[in-house]
Amino acid sequence: MGGVEGQDGSSVSDEEWDRFLRESVKGAAGAPVEPSARARGVERSLKEGAGQAEGWRTYSPARPRRRTGWYVAGLVAAAALLGAGLFPQQVFGLFDGDDGGQSETPLAAESKRPGAAPGAAPAQRPTWDEPFRGSPAARWADGAAGITVPAAKATGWMDAAQVDKALEQSRRFLVDAGLDRGVLRGERPTKAIGLLNPHQSDVQDYLRTALSSKTPTPTPTTDPLLLFSRFRPRQAQLVGDVVKTRGRLSYREGRRGALEVTADVTFVYPVAPAGERGRDTDIVRTIVRREVVMSWDDPDKVITEPGTMSLVSYTLDLTNGGCSGPTGYFTPPFDAADKQHADSEHRLDPYDRSKPVDSDDAQADGKKCVTATRS
After folding, report:
1. Domain segments of the chain: what residues?
2. Residue 335's pLDDT is what?
């Protein structure tokens, strides 16, 4: 049996050498075990308050991006395309966001002609405190805020800044003609007239005749209601301080390089009999949709004045405004006789802005009368 020489030169037997190797690997009983470098690092981190160290075999993957939305969006888009093919009017009406007044969320501004009429709303009578109750107009904007003005860009003889100013003045004309409180009480629309080209002879003749106190009962062509909204104070009063509006301006290059602006706006006027107020007050909504085409002419080509425009055309659809022929004022149907007179074959949804204004104007011949299918 061989042996191994010790440090002092003595001989170590083979059995003793094997036992020494085994104990070196396993560690002798009760002998301190030397911690690993990893364990020493963990102990040091804990003592320093650094928290628990990450395991050396652990793996923290990057947060995955959720792709569920894309799948849902794809399903919605497919359903919308299928629905649009089968029921285009209904589908486009949903995307316009108008549910007929069932929601209290204000509608987004109108930037283009909607694809369908607003949905039906629960039948609810208007009240003095809620004059737009049960109407799609409940979600419309108040006053001038409901008239959308598009972004301006150079058109015809005007640069972008001039177009922007002309658009604002075009909206100002609609406000002065259809929302000014004095004008609504029958006063002269001085501010609106100030925006009209004084050299446009046919329009000036119309204004002189329509607004003259000496003029007898107006005719369909000289009725001031063609351009201005008016109520006779002794007959009707506005309910509250708000008139609801919805509509937009659009523009293009017109004749002789002019800026041609088209306004398509619906006004909803809640009114009650003059002097009455209370729970049982009969409230009627007179609804007027106006289409006015205005031309901002190049002064080098058309005789005009700075800050004024010419009228190319103007027309309207009117419901709940009177059926007894032109009087120069809206005459809401408060009593039973007026309501009976209002029944006619010519019926109109006054909230349907998906169709053009009726160019075959029901008021134009003085014989037909438009009946609102809802108000």
Report:
1. 123-372
2. 72
